[in-house]
Please model this.
Amino acid sequence: MSYKLIYFDIGGRGEPIRMIFAAAGVEFIDDRIKDEDWPKIKSAMPWEQIPVLEIDNDTLAQTVTICRYLGRKFNLVGHTEFHAAKCDEYVDHFNDFFEYWARYFYEEDEALKVKYKEEFLAVHLPNCLSKFNSLLEKKKHKDFLVCQELTWADVFIATKMDRMQKTTGQEVLDSYDAVKKFKDTVFNFPKIQEYLKHHTVNI
Model:
């Protein structure tokens, strides 16, 4: 089975997918298109959006859908159906939270951008990260969210946290020891470390 990921030459929505491939140790074609080439291929993409994953002669679109598929394909969903469902729960919740980051990050009006960022840092970030921190502290396996082994949800959320740190400030995780340790543990996973040695992640 062959895989080709089509996305821009940035981290963005494509990086969680790349990181899941890395965690699984599965090779794929990383087709990083240039901005100027996007209009030429846009109409050929499902929903006229990327990322798109080509799997042999089939295509799959939408970041979370692709990540969920790869998680199941590569056995990164824990050991039970309940574990797989918890992966979905944690990713869905974090994605809801991440919309507040996107609102401020992509806002072009400077006054609104400042307002949204202040709201994100004062309200939404502590509300979300405190819950994840408490969740991790209560678990016997404090390194990962779902079970004692790495799942696609761990990779997805840690990758999003990394992007949030790089765009908002490295200190945003400092008040959440368990979350910070979780993110570092995922990024220190041997296969992910090997990937990061050879790839610079642009925001």
